[in-house]
Amino acid sequence: MKLKEIGEFGFIDRIAPLGDIRRTGVVKGIGDDCAVLEYDESEYQLVTTDLLVERVHFRMDWTTPEQLGSKALAVNLSDIAACGGVPYDAFVSLVVPDRIEVEWLEALYRGMSETAREFDVNLLGGDTTSSLSDFIISVAVTGRVPKSEILYRNTARAGDYILVTGPLGLSAAGLEMKTRNVDAAEHVVESLMASHLTPKPHVREGRMLARSGFCTAAIDVSDGLSSDLRHLCQESGLAAEIYEASIEPPPELIELSRVTGRNPLEWILNGGEDYVLLAAVDPNGIDKLLDDASEWGRRFMSIGRFVEGSGMNLIRSDGSVTALQPGGWDHFR
Ligand code: ADP
Ligand code: MG
Q1: Spans of the chain below 50 pLDDT
Q2: Alpha helices, DSSP H only, in the chain?
Q3: Is any ligand 1 atom within 6 A of the Cβ of residue 33?
Q4: Which residues, including other chains, have CB under 8 Å from residue 325's CB and lie 6 or more apart?
Q5: Rounded to a whole number, what is the distance in angstroms from the first to the last CA of the chain?
Q6: What is the pTM (predicted TM-score) of this model?
Q7: How many other CB atoms are found less than 10 A from the CB of residue 313?
Q8: Using CA atoms, how far apart are residues 172 and 144, in angstroms rounded to an integer?
Q9: Are strands 136-146 and 161-164 parallel, antiparallel or unpaired?
Q10: Separation of 162 CA from ligand 1 center, angstroms?
């Protein structure tokens, strides 16, 4: 049997029980954005790991080493953010083919170090080995979160609002623009490529949600809104409704869709690598969270509701309803 027959998540479900050896100190193992471990009276420790593979996640000729180093760390910080945590320490492993120069690796570390400094994260170890083909960078990050504030995927409630902490679709549109060699205005190209190559993890946004007391569940959008929302739904045992009318496409997407003829909604729903947070919010707190965010200069968007049942629906602006299929990224499908 090949991985493509069961998919990435089918595989994870099969191997998860094999890791369940010693329960002591483990609050949550495989299945959320981070593993959650007992730390002390008041806090949990978070651990997460993510890797980037040449030709699968990035192309050497489209990214600078600084950008790649920054992104490799950022995607891990995003998983800490999804649990409402503060990142602490990172461990970095490199698989390096012969063609890579030391100067390139140093530049990679400069990029990583800059993002590490921005989020006050130490780089404390790792491993370096040779590769017969592609370059791979694997990062693990630890973090901490107050026990009363931790955000899981499986605790959304029917009636909660569905909130995103930033724009969706920019990274996927950037990738498509580059892949299809689409020509767009310079500010559009710059903004889309920055979203794709140097995503900013929403650590502060995650802390704000966690501290508010109104956020009931969260995940970060790495595979795409439809796929990551499905995780929240399945794990919380709920259905979701997304309202097209509540989704305001970023201006860059509107401009690019003019050039490509593509509906911006495709990038928004299925794009992926957005690294914003997707959260469930108690109806009593949604207005306050939106107001607080805008006072802070951030644009959170309320785009739907969790409801009883299963599955996901897109409520079109004309009132018609279409089933929303998880159309985001699965490595093996
Ligand atoms: P994320 O996109 O948030 O990083 P993933 O979809 O990669 O999460 O993984 C989902 C869950 O499965 C996480 O808890 C992750 O640690 C776990 N996981 C993924 N791959 C493996 C693996 N090969 N072995 C053990 N656990 C894994
Ligand atoms: Mg995640």
Answers
A1: none
A2: 3-15, 65-82, 102-118, 170-179, 186-197, 203-212, 225-236, 251-260, 264-270, 286-295
A3: yes
A4: 226, 312
A5: 13
A6: 0.96
A7: 17
A8: 30
A9: unpaired
A10: 23
67 Cβ inside 6 Å of ligand 1: no
> Which residue, chain included where needed, has tokens 């592609």?
134
Q: If 0-12 CB within 10 Å is exposed, 13-18 middle and 19+ buried, where does residue 303 land?
A: buried
Contact (CB, 8 A) for 186 and 286: no
pLDDT digits (tens, 9 = 90+) for 170-196: 999 999 999 888 888 999 999 999 999
**What token pair was written down for 129?**
């080995």
Instruction: Give the whole-angstrom CA distance, residue 88 versus residue 319.
Output: 46
pLDDT for the residue 296: 96
Q: What is the pLDDT of residue 225?
A: 97
Per-residue tokens: 282: 């108690």
Beta carbon of 222 within 6 Å of any ligand 1 atom: yes
| CB-ligand 1 contact for 3 (6 Å cutoff) | no
Residues 46-61 pLDDT 10s = 999 999 999 999 999 9
Q: Which of 11, 20, 30 to mutate to test the pocket of ligand 1 (most atoms within 8 A of CB)?
A: 30
Using alpha carbons, select from 36, 50, 60 the residue that is nearest to residue 331: 50
Q: Do the beta carbons of residue 203 and residue 119 sit within 8 Å?
A: yes
Length of the chain: 333
User: For the residues of 35-80, what is the DSSP string, one character each?
Assistant: EEEE-SSSEEEEEEEEEEEBTTTB-TTTS-HHHHHHHHHHHHHHHH
Cα 230 from Cα 225, distance rounded (Å): 8
